[in-house]
Design goal:
The chain is an alpha/beta fold. The chain folds into 2 domains: about 130 residues, D-serine dehydratase-like domain (Lyase, Ornithine Decarboxylase, Chain A, domain 1), CATH 2.40.37.20; about 230 residues, Alpha-Beta Barrel (TIM Barrel). The chain contains 11 helices and 17 strands. Strands 1, 10, 11, 12, 13, 14, 15, 16 and 17 form a 9-stranded mixed beta sheet that branches.
Length: about 400
Amino acid sequence: MKPPTKTPVSDYLAHLVGQSVNTIDTPALVVDLDALRLNLGRMAEFAKKHNVRWRPHAKTHKSAALAKLQLLAGAAGICVQKTAEAEIMAAAGIRDIYISNEVVAAHKLARVAVLANRMAAENGRLAIAVDSIEGVSRLAMAMNDARAARLGSAVIDVFVEIDVGQGRCGVAPGQAAVALAQEIRKHPALRFAGLQAYHGKAQHLRGAQQRREAIAMVVEDVLYTRKMLEAAGLPVELVTGAGTGSMVCEAASGAFGELQSGSFLFMDADYAANERDPAQPHFEHALFIKTQVISSREDHAVCDAGHKSHAIDSGLPKVHAFDADSELNYLNGGDEHGILRPAGTSSRIPAIGRMLWLIPGHCDPTVNLHDFIIGVNGGLRSGTVERIIRVDARGAAT
């Protein structure tokens, strides 16, 4: 596959490798590689303990290099949400990709069919989700057109998505899912691969008991649907779903065979605000915005990281505090600025030139604002730049 055009690494970024974190210009997206590796190890250990596969969402990092690190750590493959993301990851050598979303546009499905055949020819695998008879019909037509054009004879794995509480995509649990699976079985180019059951809203319920109760209802829907499918002679090979906030519940349920958690890799401020379930591995903050104080007054300071450097859909970023003196609140300062005020009685207003680290509220859209992530080892205070990580799928929205 022809790789997409890539933004070149600037001389500045190339020369950063091996240099102190203090040389990183601001604002910049930085990953603490030591924390990231701890998170990877803890996720792999958790999945092994519960005898489930893990297929992390690459939409979190949009980076082929980080996807490959996850695969080396034991991930079964990756999830993406967009056809373009799948194309980019496949071009970079990722061989097991699941588009955990509905694709219905004819021109996009033609791309899906081409990609499925290319991946099959390279001993790879592409899967996709559906939630309508129309979606199945359109997918089958695209795969048949690819066969007619002699692009290959691949069979694509298809998961039936059921709505288990998200209120977004998905058919109702039960008979509607059976009808959809039966429709998939009618098409030689499609293979019914199992159920997609993801409850996104449950990820952000703050209380651990709230999340347990929400996922208990998900499990009921999954087991009910599975029973009906099997009664209709449609074995359910795999149930896939779960996210970082609730994965302990799905893993312990016995109903799920695969976890799609992605944000655990970076652990943003929103997920950290959840009450931690005792069974949940401790994931470290690994993604930061490095910023510098550019103005300082008696009651506040201003840094150079505004909304153009971090997403705010899940709230404003948190200032990473190394000690009581550096406990600060980040307030809305607009596109290019952040307002900083003391968070405690012992906190001090930082002086002009002071370097600070922000923990984004939501990692996924924050990463999508940057072309590169600067990977640091040895810590944020005295570490060195180890590598420059390309955000390959930035802006891959189709």
